[in-house]
Automatic annotation (TrEMBL), chain A:
It holds the Pfam family FlpD. This is Coenzyme F420-reducing hydrogenase, delta subunit. The keyword Metal-binding applies. InterPro entries: MvhD/FlpD. Keywords: Iron, Iron-sulfur, Metal-binding, Oxidoreductase. The keyword Oxidoreductase applies.
From TrEMBL, chain B:
It comes from the Bacteria. It holds the Pfam family Fer4_9. InterPro entries: 4Fe4S_Fe-S-bd, 4Fe4S_Fe_S_CS, Helical_ferredxn. This is 4Fe-4S dicluster domain-containing protein.
Amino acid sequence: MSGSSGLLAEGQDLRIVGFLCNWCSYGGADTAGVARFEQPTDLRVIRVPCSGRIDPLFIARALMSGADGVLVSGCHPRDCHYAEGNFYARRRFEMLKQFLSVTGIDPERFHYTWVSASEGQRWQDVVTSFTERIHKLGPAPKMSGGTGYDEECLKEIAAAVSCGEQCPCHKEKA
Amino acid sequence: MQALAELKEQIRQALPDLDVVIGWQQGFDALHTRPLFIRSEEDIDKLVVNEFCVVNPASYLRELRGGKKVGLVLKGCDSRSVIELLQEDLLKEEDLTIFGFGCNGILNHTKLQARFGELGFIQSIENDGANVTVVVGDNKETVPFTELCADKCLTCVYPNTLQCSHFVGEESTKKPESEKNKALEEFEKLSLEERFAFWQDQMRRCIRCYACRNACPMCVCKDHCIANSREPKWLSEEVDVQNNFMFQLIHVMHLTGRCVECGECERACPMDIPIMLLRRKMAGVIRDVFAYNAGTNAEDTPPLMCFKVEEPTIEERH
């Protein structure tokens, strides 16, 4: 199904996972919906009690499992419903964001921001700009599945076995 | 070795008040040491301290928690793991007696093997600090120490045991060869696609034996590791690239701001997968953002266990 929104070029929807805090961003997204702001349809929202509930591993797991982007949104700092959840969250997300590049996963695929319950318009901007960014990057590179022995690997092993005593590992030992 | 005799004497005096002292003893050949658990007087004589003492004795502390009085012979890098555990209130300072010394670097068996082939052929090995002389058959070869030592020793800034109760010998004046780890610097020059392909390739070799986790002194919840839990199920038992890589990410994330870069995980890896690249990167990020070095001061709070309302080093994302 292609996104029906006029905001993005026609094309395949990508998978974007959104973790939204129950108290601000989920309300903000709701406000945007009630106000009928047009939004791209790539985002799948997961509601969490607080941005402090989000283990950075949720984000890693989503990216490893084939999400093309992950958007995390919580209350603005100082406005946390639980007083300090997002302060801890901010540190964790920043660590993850700066670390991601070494794994070869583009850090641009992960974005965290703060949207309050009244910021329907801002929510629309956040989702639209992030979705555009992900569409520019295109689908995420896929983890090669398999159990370590893909066809190429098996061919190599078969070739080594077929040469018997002549294979390099035997020569080294001789 | 004057200092070793002195160290043994210190242990002899402290032993009556301790349940066990962990150090190193000679392994099956000249190149290997194995952990030594000193429980009686006669065990003390088995103690060796040399450039092959690669194991981090702090890794055994988890099993010895709960009021046991433990003594430890620690290198500078090992002592950081103990301090980190003290910071997290996982150990009590009064239960620990730490015997320290100045370390001049340790050798890396993987590098030795790469340089000299099967280690079984090596008859004797001598290390004068700058060069390592190895006798293989009739050949005598001298190699600079920096080519054979563990990667962590090249960037080591804590050659002396930190916060120890007893210190023997002279303090080591070893200076780091370089500020940043060369392998990581080289790796970071690659493009994202190349890095991704590199890890795909490396993780294909991983057999998920969990040696990296079990050797890690900071993995304190080994018995309840989320990698093995069924509820929630983070990982399948299948050994494929995705699960292997996810496991590495779990390990790195759980060590964020706690990893003391002791290198035990990579040393324990039977497949020699360069997983320290990930750990070093994360430790580097922690250093950049929070100006914090894990396990250097028992009074500090690890950076992810606290926060500031205004983060001067984190860009505001309004």
